[in-house]
Amino acid sequence: MSSSTPPRRVVVIGSGFGGLAAAMRMLAAGLDVTVVERLPAPGGRASQIKDQGFTWDLGPSLVTMPWCFDELFALLDRDFRQEVELVGLDPFYRIDWPHDGTRIDFKGDIAEMQEELARLSPVDAAQYPVFLEASRQIHEQAVLAAGRRAFENPLPFAKLLPTMLKLDAARSLSRFCGKYFSEPHIFQSMSFHSLYIGGDPYRVPAVYAALAYLQVADGVWYTKGGMYSIVEAMVRAIEGAGGRVRCNADVDEIIVRGGKAIGVRLADGEVIPAEVVVSDADPVRTRQRLLKGAPDRAPWRFRGARNGMSCFLLYLGTDRVFPTLLHHTLMVGDGYRKFIDDVTHQQVLPETLSLYVHVPTRTDPSMAPVGGDSLAVLLPVPNLASGDDWSAISDTWREKVVDYLERDAGLEGLRASIKVEHRMTPIDFEQRYDADEGTAFSTEPVLTRSAYFRQPNKDRTVAGLYHVGAGAHPGAGVPGVLLGAEVTAGLVRRDLGIPA
Description:
The protein is α/β, with parallel strands linked by helices. It folds into three domains: 9-46 and 60-86 and 224-305 and 445-496, 3-Layer(bba) Sandwich (FAD/NAD(P)-binding domain); 109-218, no CATH class; 307-433, no CATH class. The chain contains 16 helices and 19 strands. The strands form five sheets. A seven-stranded mixed β-sheet has the order 7-6-15-16-17-14-18, with helices on both faces.
């Protein structure tokens, strides 16, 4: 591109990790990039709340595969490790079964982890390195191979299937883990990871066994100041490279002329012309709400796409510390399998509770006043397709969660210690993030909604329109959306004739 030629314009809708990562990559390619965000601050689902000295990340709470960020920031001549302060966690997390008193601390060292598992089953402990090796092969041969390429037609997916079959990655994650582990607690601790991206371990493919391996290979990390410190670093990088991040800029329409996206119209009527539009918005809402000038016939794969589960979240600021909680603690209730099936498949509210509790103050005291804790409590629940009226039941479920934490999980005195509180329900996911049916994780990550069958990175009906984020290939989770941004930016470069 000659110095006299103005850079080609790109508009990115949404400033989640996927949108910001795509913007950084396209800036590195010499494009003129504007990110528009409907909320008052950037970050999307990686937003943050500060209140009376307490700080909570609203979405992602940990970093895995940090090399994805290393590569991304290096494109703009920045050092990710200098932009944020990364702290390694070990144990990665604690898994508690309060109903029977069992506890597993998931550790990074394989030998130490085997010792931890041997308390419950020496036989299963011996299988742990074998399981990790099988997971490593899935990660390297299937996940990275698929996650860093586009699926513009069915052929690449067909070529991937023999590898998945060879690795046994096409069967369900639960059946895959069942080959190695029979002790119930160990089995659950090795198969739950797909829940991080809204996937039922009994229904998603075993390709997600890679999640258990990559945390051991690359570690589990926290960023001082919360995950939002990464959002702030990404915005600094974008603006430092000449890009723009505009908040309170709600897109009302992706303008389409002659079957091609030519810009966006904001809710206030402002038109931002562009040669390329990249949507980090919910893919269903992008098509139904924003593509008013698009062809009427949606691609076949959009018909019947099922959204993943949602979440009920409590953000609690307490005036005391609860030392039994690690930085990450999972509490698995009795009837775990039915709980997951109710939430993800049957779409009914669960009869028992299983919770994830994030306590960043274990690693970063600045997240709460001295002597207090900052707790984010997550309960998986069905999305709004269930018909549940969260405006009517939110208070009831708040009491159920707090009762469970006090009575069953051993956090005595929790209710009395709460000084500041916020919450999110599926209604908030719908209204705040424009998430279809209030899903927290976008499209359900089963095999028939993955790779070619997921929202493609390049739209199949509108030229000049591309997609990133949890709903697009390869899917949810911070590493997933970062890999997806790499794929999308590569397609944009190719289609605009920009050398790699």
